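Worked Example 4.2. Consider the chain below.
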Amino acid sequence: MSEPTVFLASGFCRLRIDLAYDGTNYAGWAPQPDRRTIEGELTSAISKLAGVLVEPVVAGRTDAGVHATSQVMHVDVPETADDIPNWTFRLNRILDPDIRILKVSVAAADFHARFSAIEREYQYRLADNNQILLPLERYNTATWFRPLDVDRLNEASSLLLGEHDFVAFCKFREDQKTVRTLKKFQWSRLDSGILTADVAANAFCYSMVRNLVGAAVAVGEGRFDKEWALAILENKERVSDSYVFPANGLTLVKVTY
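Applying the procedure from the previous section yields the following structure tokens:
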């Protein structure tokens, strides 16, 4: 499906839709032939209410298995669309319970879910040292068998902050821009023992957060010094010694406009 234009067509209004989803059973956000996707489900549901085929635009396209607690999208619908104030309720009646609409509101004509966003923030949850993972946590928390040192994780992560070419931390996609500004990459340990990495940037490349987590973990477990992660960044080449962590530990938690 083509990207809708930035400008609002005559006779239409632009809706901002805030939503959350469990990405476990989806092949990511973007439509794929014969595969269930978040956008595919939303396009079908919203089009039923709008009476026309809509083209959703999202703040950040999440990969297969990645979750969101605070995703934002917009769609353009006819001004004559019926009962928009009750669309939150009506859409949640149509959608499966692993996608929840949090709010539907009429947006300014120049609002754009993707281009108006100035920052996206993700959280990665990780149970290290063979920690027992509670059954419900398996959906949003990855596991690791070695113990990780929080200080070492943060020392490596802090070296990657700022505007850089993150090509070494991105899965290759043709015509993908890889210069990004990493604003936050901070680790902490919850009382439960679970590690969390809070990662924020102006935008992210495909699989970038999971690669950043992998590099930090390689330092946090003592395999490499913190400068090793910086060398990967500066050399702009992917290395086999790093890890790419599973999608299930990753959740989009905030979009800033």
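The radius of gyration is 19 Å. The chain has a mean pLDDT of 95. Compare this with Example 4.1 before moving on.
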